[in-house]
Predict the 3D structure of the following.
Amino acid sequence: MVVLEEIEQVRAGFLKYTREAFLKLPCLENPRILDIGCGSGVPTIELAKLSGGEVTGIDIDQSCIDEFNRKLKEENLANRVEALKLSLYEMKFPDETFDVVWSEGVVGNIGFETSLKEWRRLLKHNGYLVIHYQVNRVADVLPRLPQLGYSLADTVLLPEDAWWTEFYEPIEEKMETLLHKYRDNADALKLLEQYKNERDMVKRNSSNFICAFYIMKKV
């Protein structure tokens, strides 16, 4: 998937929620953090700056990883941030490797409950799993967190219209300009078409896209 600078700039507007969620965690000294589905590293780099620790970001898209590595050199973070081309289905990290496992964009691929079950082993004792996901898809799971080996430490609820007003609407305002700019780039046009389809879904059913960060402690 091609990475478009204009989309990256809009996506960076959501970092205020990443920061708010991270600051809900207790003080962690030089933590090891895994960001699952890191894309081009927008939240991953922010986590590295916030934590001062070692961060690993994984994503299946090579173009995203390439862009991520470019940013790491630019930010002088390559000594403690690692970008890996890796599927979330192929993670072979040893048990209890990370203090924090973070995911902002891929839980929909495997489901909230499955994520909790499969990623728990990656966390150290008393580690934290932080997931950004749609509110209407977690209600049946949250009451069962103790049975799944977690306690709910905190929640950061995004404004109801955040994904529309802070992401898809700004992209919509740029769309004609972007379509013209990338008119000879088939990959870019394909990506823009994807955003148009997502935009239409959010516009029609905005209540289905109310999201929150769920901060869960391994117990």
